[in-house]
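Incident log entry.

Two folding requests arrived from the same account within the same minute. Monitoring flagged them as a possible duplicate submission, but the sequences differ. Recording both here for audit purposes.

Request one:
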Amino acid sequence: MTTINDIVLIYFEDQPFSYARVEQILPDAKRDWYHIKLLLLQVPLETVTWILKDTYINGDEFTMGGKRMRLEKVETIEDLDEDDFVDEDMLKTQEPEASDQKKEPAKVVSLTDRKPKK
């Protein structure tokens, strides 16, 4: 469900058009319709207020001037589960490290030694 301070991607005719932050959602006189104020994240910044049904705010397609539009909430890292970042296939293909192998200490490379001499 899209709410205030969420970032949305605006699609215009099935093509990504612009990102926007939801600034405000206020009820309209008509039931299930809302005034949604968006800060378009572009140069220059611009705010627009659209009157949309709650289903349109949450991702259903609608039209403006005969053109197809859609809002898609952008999922942030905080919204995703930790499992979304783990590639299970990669974990299966990695070989376990041998615990009896000794690791050599890392070498320190001096940048001053690498300067060309004049």
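Request two (distinct sequence, not a duplicate):
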Amino acid sequence: MFETLHKATLDKIFVLMAEFAADSRSNKIDLGVGVYKDDKNNTPIMSAVKKAEQRILDAAKTKTYKGVVGNKEFSAAIVELALGGVVDASRIRTVNGAGGTGALMILMQVLGRARPGGKIYISDPSWPNHWPLAENAGLVPVTYPYFDPKTRSVDFPAMLKVLDTLTGDDIVLLHGCCHNPTGANLTPAQWDQVVESLKRTGAFPLVDLAYLGFGDGLEPDAYGVRKVVSSLPESMVAFSASKNFGLYRERAGVAIAIAKDSATSDVVSSQMQNVIRGSISQTPDHGAEIVRIILEDGELRGEWEAELNQMRERMKRLRVKLSDAIRRKSNSKDFDFIAEHSGMFSLLGLPAETVQKLKVEDAVYMINDSRINVAGIPEDRVDELADFLIAAAG
């Protein structure tokens, strides 16, 4: 049976994780995997999450199924958090996804059924998993320009030029905020222009909202997704609670579909449920219930928002510290963009051989495209890391 198979290519992030774990050097620095880390290099459980979990433990009486659509109250709370009431509820349908990736899978599968072999435009660069998710759904992924490696900023004219050529059969995948892997994000004015382009062409927007609250705050980070869903007759949003609630292994996400009217929304909902039933049958609930409890309880929500603010401000502080240290030591502005970008990631623009050199010689681990997890920067070793990067960049 298995003689027809070939070894699949392993995800480079998980390969890097294994290499880091096997490295015995005590001075190693992990800038690879995209999880938040505190000043002790731990990925903590948020205090509001612990309290919500205790409530679940105390009150739980069953582990029976929630149904194919999942935790409806969790979905409703996420719709309110992300969309803020800008779309009539009669046009919105939701199902739980196994994390943001699961939500994307469900939405792309539905889009693949709606447009078999249709093109989905993905930013260049983008999160690597976007590509196989699209292909597995029967869509044809192609890229649109996004990041200019020379200016370390969004090449918006090039992006818009391509978006303006699309048709009503095309799908556009947009990062709602905190672009992965670059950290370079659209301004509100640019979001407005993207929406106007989508209005003209009729292209369908799919928004990946994986880092709400990690950029400039919950409300500012929601500008783009709210502009899209409130301005266009049809759209989809994949929400992840992995980062902003620290629920990585709990796989809590929501697939949100918005159609032109309630009847069409029901059709889309039936398709989303069909995808779930024919794949994983039911979605996980533990993480979903944690988020529901937090968002429906004023005290816990305030505690969560305060901790989220601390996480975001820490990442901003680390950006500034590293950027300042490199400028001070090299008398160069080449890495000032680190402080100018936002979110968890920055793309340093280093060649693969330099990334390999940093790993082998300095025990500094990052993805081979030179994406770094800003939260992984050890604050007490910023100057040392700056020295490594300056020397490696040559």
